[in-house]
Structures are given as C-alpha cells and as structure tokens.
Amino acid sequence: MTLRLSLSVWVGMLVVMAVAHLPGALQKCVFDEVQAEVTVVRAARIHPDSPPSEPRLRPPVGQERRPLTSGRQTGRQRWRTSPPLGVSVKRGSAVGDTAPSTSASPQPIRIRTWIPSESDDLSDAEKGKLKAAVEEAVRTVSSLLSVNRVLGHLLLSRDVNKYCKFVWSDSRTANCNRCGRANSNYRNETCLDVTIPDDHLAGCHIYPEPDSPRRAVLRPEGAGLPDADFLLYLHIQATDKCRAEPNVLAYAVHCQTDAHGRPLAGVVVICRDRLTEAAYNHQATVQTVIHELFHALGFSKDLFHTWTDCLSSSPVGAGCSPLGKVIHSDRLGQMRLYTPSVISALQKHLASADPELGGPLENLGAPAGRVSSHWESRVLRGSIMAAALEDSAAVRIDPVTLAALQDTGWYAVNPSRAQSLVWGEGEGSTFGSLSSCQDNSSSFFCTGSGRGCHFLHLHKGECQTDAYLEGCGVFKPLKNASECWKKENTRQSAEGDRSGEILGFNSRCFFSNLTRQRQFLVSSSSVEGRCYRHRCTGPNKYQIQVSGSEWANCPAGGAIQMKGYQGSVFCPDRRLCLYPDITPPSDDVNTLPASYTSDPSEVLTTAQDGTWSPLPPLTELGGTTALCCTAAICLLAVLVVVSHRQCRSCSNRVHTVPEHHRQ
C-alpha cells in the first residue's frame, strides 16, 4: 500500500480558492446536502483485548429489526449489525476502536491523506506551494485537536449491508444473524465517488451453513494504515453537483466513525471545472482545507446529537454522558447549539451572561425549524465555520468553533490556540439580530450604500448585504485595490493627493473626510474609508500619519484634525493595537499565525506590523547596544523639544467622534 498526495488535486483547491477569495466573492457550501446522501458506517465498541466477534445482520422484516443508530438512511431502510464490523487493530486478535480510557493522555490527531493517482503536470514551484499548503493545514488542525489515538494500524469497516445477501435467522442455530450468503454484486466500499482500497479495510467472512463454524473468506484483512487517527480521501472531478452549483468550489463528508461516534474517514471533493489561471493564494487554500477538515471531523448537524459531556479530568471518550438534544430555538426564533463550552465561549465573546446564548446556526437554505452545519454569519462573521468564507485576512479559527469541537467529547482542545475573533466582541446578547443590525446601534453594521472601512481596517469597504446577512449591511472590501497595506494600490490622482492617503504595510483604513488645504478655500469631502499609516503605542493606543504630516496621537473613539488639512480622521475604538494576530495576509508559507506560537507572550515582542511591540528593558540589552539606544533616545528627545517649540501653534486638535463613525 502506498499513500499518495496528488498535487493536481491541491492545485484544484488552490486555484479555486484564489477565485473564491476575490473581494465580494461568496463560496457556497453544500456539506449538509451531500452528507445526507452518505451512509455512515459505524464501528462496534469492542475492547482491543476482547475475543474477535463476527459481524451479524439483524433478521429480515418482521423479526426483531432496528434501524442503524448512526449514519444516514437514504431511500431504502438499512439495518445495524450485531455488532457491526469494527475498526481493526492490526497485530492484535480483535476488532476494536480507539485506545481504551486507561490509555495515555490524548495526543495530537494524526491525519493521513490519500488519493488515487492522477496526472501530474505541475511545475516544481507549484508542487512546492501546494505541498506547503496541505502540510500547514494538517499541521494546524493537529496542533488544535488531540485524541485517544488508534492503537496499531487503522482499518476501516465494511458495510455488511452491501456484501451480505441474507443472514441466518433461526435463533436456535449457532450462526444466527451471521451472514450466510454473499451478495454477488458486491464489488467494493466507497465514500462519495472514492473507492476505498481493500488495503484500508477489515476483512469479512461468509458462513455457508447455519450450525457449522466453517466459514469462507469473502475479503481478506487489509494491511491498514500505521500512525493514523483520521484518513482523508481527496477527489478532484467535475461532478454533477459542481456543474449544477456554479458557486460550489469544494465539499466534504465523513463516511466512517468509531464506536464513540468520532469520524475516522472522510472525503473532500474539488470541482475540477472551476480551475482557472488565477493567482495563487496560500492562506485561502489553507483555510479552505481546515474548513473542510472540521466538517469531516465532526462539525456536522448530523452528529450534534451524538456529542457527549465529558469531565474535564477524564481522558477523551471516558467519563462522558450523552448531551441529548442540543438544538433549540431562542425567543427570537434563532436556532442555536446549546453545549457547555459553546455557551461559555459565546458569553465571553459577547460579554453577556444571557443563558440563551448558544451557538447561532445559519438558517439560509434550511427548512423552518431545521439547522445547518455552519455558524450564523451575522453573529460570527469571520469564523472559520461561518457559512461564507470572505477575504482570507478576516477568517479566524475562533474560540467558539474550538469550543464546539471540545464539546464533541472526542477531542481535547487547547483554547489558548484560538485566533482573535474581532467581529461582535463585547457587543451584547442581541448582536447580529435582524432588528439590531439596522438601527445603527453597532458599528459593525452599516446602512445605505456608502463607502467606509472593513471591520478589521485592513481594507477600504463598501456597505453591502448578501443572502447570508438577510438585509443587514456590512462594509465589504472593494472589488479593486481595497487593501491599505499594499503600497502598489496608491492612487496616482489629484483626489488621492488631496485626502493625504499613505498606503503600505503599516497603513490601515480610517473613516475620514480630510481635504488638503490650498491657497483657496475648498469644500469638505464626505466621510469615507481612507488609508493612513499607523503605529501602536500601547493596547488600543496608536498614532497616525497622513501625507506630509508628523505622527499624531489618534484617540480611540475620538477624532483628530491634521495640520494642513480641513476635516477630520475618526479613530476606531478597540479595533487597532489590540489583536497581535490580526495582520495583513502573507504568502510566507513558513510562517504560522501568531496564535500558534508556543508562547503567547512572544506575540508582543515579535510583531513587526504595527501591533503593540514594546521594547525590552535596557538592562536586557548588551552594553554597547544599551549605550547606543540611550544616545539615540537622548537625541530624539532633543529633536522633539525643538520641534515642539517650533510648532506649538500648529498642534493637532482632538475632538469626540460622532456616534455614526465610531468604527
């Protein structure tokens, strides 16, 4: 058996996602629709040291049948084995699942990727970029989730309903409920359009006689996968669903679970027809892989009812009890996921103790009273599990999503590795409701069709809505040259010169109506998003610089007037210099987000992008360096005093920002 990572599949994901993350583009996720078409095979819970147990079918109609308790029932009724064939542990004598509760503490999940051979016409440079994207996505997920690892080699289950034609039903026979005849049409096991190799599957047997222990090997036991806790199959094809849905770029499912319900295998399909010559976007590719992996690993409405409440002091999968029904409607009709960690994370994020703050679930495309496998975009915009992934700079692996994965009972999650979710932070329990988003009570939403700043202030934006926002307006990045951090977007025009814009890596978007003063009086321009330099001086404290000006303190929540200009720059409150991991996107494939460093304190000392980065004490510097710094500081102080004396009459004026422009 050979594990093969087909780079052509990842170029499909790569280029597709580059198109999807153009400003204003929305990707449609059809995970729920596709997952409903898949029959999930679940393993029996058998201790690895127990004797082997042959899979058995329940009797036919009229004789003590019960439907499968896990997996989707599609069209015809399917029935559970007693027990069903489980996940094998190679080099042992039993059919088992994951490590028992007495095993060592959870370890980072091991994700193995496999795909059938496909043509490979990529350049070495493209291969390197794609490999880096895949490795980073898998490495990131493995750093976030830990499991009780599969012992030995991972073997997936065969669907007894496929390979068996009938079972012995006489309870007086030794082989009652065991398979007596093979289905002559049985060929293989599949997940979506992917054929699972026999080498990845446990074997199966047929008992030709009702009382004889003699059995025939229908399929031998496969070799299995070493060092694997989850197997991800990747498939690139122009499927019917891809052709029918022009906004579908990729979709995923899970198709095998262990005895605890944890997914063991899944598929990601990439729509081949979406491939173009668009520019490579490393960060967007990584985010899409992570999004699909989270779906396949259990962020699924079909698995919510299987999640368990586990004691924090117990190993993963031990000391757990079913959570039961976890989906309920709140008083406004919003469907929510009510699990302990999710409630706690959302209450903390919105700064509210409201007990109805369960995780809000997207309702677009779901029948009344039903839910989807995504967060509601109005409330958790920017989350990696929102229904629509927007610009890659705004997508976050957020605390609420990690809390949901913790509440599955299958994973141990380190919440300190979550990325900052700026959207809606501290806004209260009603944030994101249809009534509150249009009353100008929150600076995260907008009305009308004017121009301003995206909520992360990396982009200029235009007030727009979409189907997921249901009429609520937000500032979305402009379609062209919206990035303040790209120097090449500098406008070579009189308008750009009049407003004093400066674009570059440390520039951010500010609401402003600055107009350069000339020898003649000019009328004030309207307030819109403009790009100016910024530098942090402390948490939520910063200075700005416009073309031709000195650095000036910009009071958060207030506004400032600049020498040589009429009008004001409005200073956003709690948006800048608070989140070290909110930075302009980078295609440096060797750099993980700041939230994934081993020591969170390193963020403040290594940030180079204008976030708060205090200097170390002089006592920590070498002697020569300390003297040089001291001399430089003294010289700077002299220059500041001289400059102050010369410019006392031209100090920048500060006043309070109007409520409408507090961003």
Structure description:
18% of the residues lie in helices and 19% in strands. The protein is an alpha+beta fold. The strands form eleven sheets. Strands 29-28-27-25-32-30-33 form a seven-stranded antiparallel sheet, with no helix packed on it. Helix 1 crosses helix 3, helix 3 packs across helix 6 and helix 7 runs antiparallel to helix 8. It is elongated. The two termini are 56 Å apart. The N terminus is likely disordered.
Walk me through the topology.
Elements: H1 7-20, H2 31-35, E1 41-42, E2 87-88, E3 95-96, E4 107-108, E5 111-114, H3 124-144, E6 145-147, H4 160-163, E7 164-167, E8 179-182, E9 189-191, E10 194-196, E11 204-206, E12 216-219, E13 230-237, H5 240-244, E14 250-257, E15 263-271, H6 282-297, E16 308-310, E17 320-322, E18 327-329, E19 335-337, H7 340-350, E20 359-360, H8 399-406, E21 412-413, E22 451-453, E23 460-464, E24 474-477, H9 494-499, E25 507-512, E26 515-516, E27 528-538, E28 541-545, E29 552-553, E30 558-560, E31 565-566, E32 569-570, H10 602-606, H11 623-646, E33 654-656
Parallel strand pairs: 1-14, 5-13, 13-15
Antiparallel strand pairs: 2-3, 4-6, 6-21, 7-8, 9-10, 11-12, 14-15, 16-17, 18-19, 19-20, 22-23, 23-24, 25-27, 25-32, 26-31, 27-28, 28-29, 30-32, 30-33
Helix pairs in contact: 1-3, 1-6, 3-6, 7-8
